[in-house]
Write a structure and sequence with these properties.
There is one protein chain. The protein has 87 residues and is α+β, with helices and mostly antiparallel strands. The chain has one domain. It has one helix and seven strands, in the order βββββββα. Strands 1-4-5-6 form a four-stranded antiparallel β-sheet, with no helix packed on it. The longest helix has 18 residues.
């Protein structure tokens, strides 16, 4: 957690992923829950499994965004189709 943040509530995040940039390629990791946090303000942050602990998804340097898994999969399919069209 960041500076003096408290988790007020956690809710499941079925069907959501955190998207990361890994060597120029977007990859997704499952989000396990969303946490309502309070610190300098209130906000909702995604959390993912990180080994034996759960960490905030946005703390990774290569974090891009959180989105629904179905949207991420649709983007992958569109990119594959575009690559096939270019050949």
């Amino acid at each position: 957690m960041s500076k003096q943040e408290n988790i007020l509530q956690i809710i499941p995040a079925t069907g959501w992923v955190a998207v990361y940039d890994v060597d120029g390629v977007e990859t997704a990791e499952s989000v396990v829950c969303f946490a309502l946090v309070e610190g300098e303000g209130r906000g909702v942050r995604a959390m993912r499994a990180d080994g034996k602990r759960i960490a905030f998804a946005d703390e990774a340097a290569n974090f891009l965004r959180v989105e629904e898994l179905s949207d991420f999969e649709d983007e992958d399919e569109e990119e594959e189709e575009d690559e096939e069209d270019e050949e």
